[in-house]
Design brief:
Layout (H helix, E strand, L loop, with lengths): L1 E8 L10 E6 L22 E5 L2 E2 L16 H15 L3 E4 L5 E4 L2 E11 L5 E6 L15 H4 L3 H7 L4 E2 L1 E2 L4 H16 L14 E2 L4 H4 L9 H13 L9 H6 L4 E4 L7 E2 L5 E3 L4 E4 L6 E3 L3
Parallel strand pairs: 3-8, 10-16
Antiparallel strand pairs: 1-2, 1-7, 2-3, 4-9, 5-6, 7-8, 11-15, 12-13, 12-16, 14-15
Helix pairs in contact: 3-4
Length: 291
Amino acid sequence: MLLIRGKFKVEGGAKPDGDTLPFIPDDVADWKLVPGEGQVVPKADGRASVRLEGIDALETHYGEDDHVEHQPRGLAHEAADELLKFLGFSTVLRAEDETVATTPDTVNGWILTRGADVYGRCVAFVGKGTPPVYSGYWTGVDEDLLKRTANYHLLLAGLAYPAFYSGLPEYLREYLTEASEKARASTKGVWKADRTLTGATVTTMTSLTHDTTGAVILPKLFRRLKDYLDFKSPDASLACFRAYLAGAGDEYRLLPDSGTLLRGLHHIVDVTGDNTVRMTRPAREVVFKEK
């Protein structure tokens, strides 16, 4: 992967969550080195969003304008704060609108990337301290280097779900899965309350967002439910949810037999008559096609 050295900078109304935060390379021209068809689009100060590779943390804010929602904020904020503290921010203060102030506002660090997503975010492993190679160079990522990243740390702490895409090498998926499974076996973080496979009864949006009674589920499933309820109504039946998923366009393969490309999460989501929704396969067994 390509290593870029720089600074993680949290200021000016930034809203970092458990898997996305701003980064500025020491040499802004390094953004042009990021491979793939997607292009990183930095702001005037060189800052761009980094989306952490291989993980999906609970949403602290998802949606647009008057339709922003969140998952249960205790675990969502715990993941976001742990990411910042892991990287070296000693104090994290979060306002009601999810803007964050930190001490210090900037810390040195590095990213390992293989490309950008369709939103112009650099998808990367993120680390602190001395990088393994000089900025702008490519390096192999072994288990020891992976364990130095916040991505691995958050999975091991149970504060994020695994989220895999086809470009991520199989051996790295296996290391990340192992970390996540250790957390799940110890019922850490999200795993003490996760209802992705057992089922969550969704009667209103509050069923998913309430800070104490909201169902803790895979964030991708939460996002699809939120978009569906926005499309139908906040208290709609889920009778058409699987049909909605069929048209959503998610493409993926299932492990261990990953030969067949499936389109639509309706293949791995069940809905029963009482508006209970669940996934039939765990996140670690789903590998999404790169967009």
